[in-house]
# Entry
Amino acid sequence: MRIDILTVFPDMLEGFFNCSMMARAQKAGLAKIHLHDIRDYTTDKHHKTDDYPFGGCAGLVMKIEPIDRLITDLKSQRNYDEVIYTSPDGEQFNQKIANSLSLLENVIILCGHYKGIDYRIREHLITREISIGDYVLTGGELAAAVMTDSIVRLIPGVLSDEQSALSDSFQDNLLAPPVYTRPAEYKGWKVPDVLLSGNQALIDEWEFQQSLERTKRLRPDLL
# Structure
C-alpha cells in the first residue's frame, strides 16, 4: 500500500513515520509512505501557499494552485483509490473506515491548515473528507498520522501476530477485554484464575463477557 501525504509541514511527520511499526512496515516493503511539501509546487517567490479569503473573514486559506499541481503530478504517475482531506467537518474516522482503507492500493491524504483550503479543491479534487474528532487542530498533520497508523497496522505482515489486530477494540463493536502478563501475582494483585486455566473455551467466553461488560459500562453507544 502507498500513502502520499500532502502538507506544508513535512518535518512534523518525518520522525513519526521513521519510528517503530511505521518504520518496520516501510522497511519490509509492506507500506510506502511519502511526504510531499506543498510549498515545492507554488510559483510564489516566497513559497506562500495561503492567502486572505474573499469576503473579508478572519484567517488564511490554503491556495488552490499548488495543491492542484501536486495532486495532478501524483495522478500522472499512478491511479489513486481515494484523495482524502483531513477536515473537522468530515465523516468521523473509526475502525470500520480504517479496515476499508487498509484494503486500498494508493491513497492521498491532504493535510488541511489555517482556516482551511480553497473550497474548489474539495469540490473537484477530493473524494473523501475525514475527521478524527469533534475538535479543531492547528493542522491536519496529526490527523494524517493517526489515520495512517491505524490503516497500516492492519496490513497483513505489519504486526508480528496478525490475529492481534482482529482482537483490538472496535473490531466487533466491542471494547477489548482486560489483558494481563507475568507475574501472575504482584503485591497480592492476582491475574484472574480463568486465564491461567489453560481451558481456551472458558477463556474465550470470559473475554467475550468482559468485552461486553466494559462496552456496556464505558461505551454503550457502540452496542
In short: The longest strand covers residues 82-92. The beta strands are 2-7, 32-37, 50-51, 61-62, 82-92, 106-111, 128-131, 185-186, 189-190. DSSP finds eight helices and nine strands in the chain.
